[in-house]
Amino acid sequence: MPDLLNLAVTGLLSSSVGAVIVGVLFVRHNKTIEAEIQEKLSRALKVFESERTWKEQALFELFGPLQMQFERTKRAFNRWTKKNLYLESKVVREGNETIRNLLLNKGHLIPPELMNEACSLVEHYDAWLEKFDRIRGDGGTVSTESFVFSGPDGYPFPTSAEAKFKETFRRLQHELYGVV
Fold first, then answer.
1. How far apart are the C-alpha atoms of 55 and 63, rounded to whole Å?
2. How far apart are CA 59 and CA 168, in angstroms?
3. What is the pTM of this model?
4. Which tens digits make up the pLDDT trace of 71-123?
5. Which H or E run includes 173?
6. Fewest Cβ atoms closer than 10 Å to its Cβ: which of 89, 99, 129, 137?
7. Rounded CA gap, 162 and 180, in Å?
8. Would you state the torsion angle of the CA atoms of residues 116, 168, 163, 68, taken in this order, to the nearest 10 degrees?
9. Is residue 129 within 8 Å of 93, Cβ to Cβ?
10. What separation in angstroms does the CA of 64 have from each of 35, 55, 155, 165?
């Protein structure tokens, strides 16, 4: 009987040691998996925060101001029925120059898929501002032209570019704040 008891105690001890070793290995493996998951989650969170920060910055510094200037100049253009130097020089010219400068100064916030549209807008505004200065550079009192247009010179307003910027403005607003 002592042999049987000795054998049982030895078996019990060796299985306990084996169970402890297996348990330690499982705990170590679980901690490794947990650390990998934490690292992946941390990276995903940083990417999310980075994307959200870019979207907020793009909306606040570029797309929001562009939206306001597009609307401002469009409304001024719709009011423009005859030669109106104030409307042309203070609203349209300043709005056109502001839009051009926003695109040039905030180019890092323009998504790659809008870069061609941005270049089309800058080209149009450059041509319009050049023509404005040529025609109205002295205050425009001598010029008989009622309106300054760059379209007839080969630089029409790129309406599709404006539409894509406005659509991106609405999309960013919706993604960030649920506003349509």
1. 10
2. 9
3. 0.73
4. 999 999 899 888 888 889 899 999 999 999 999 999 999 999 999 999 999 99
5. helix 159-177
6. 137
7. 18
8. -110
9. yes
10. 41, 11, 25, 10
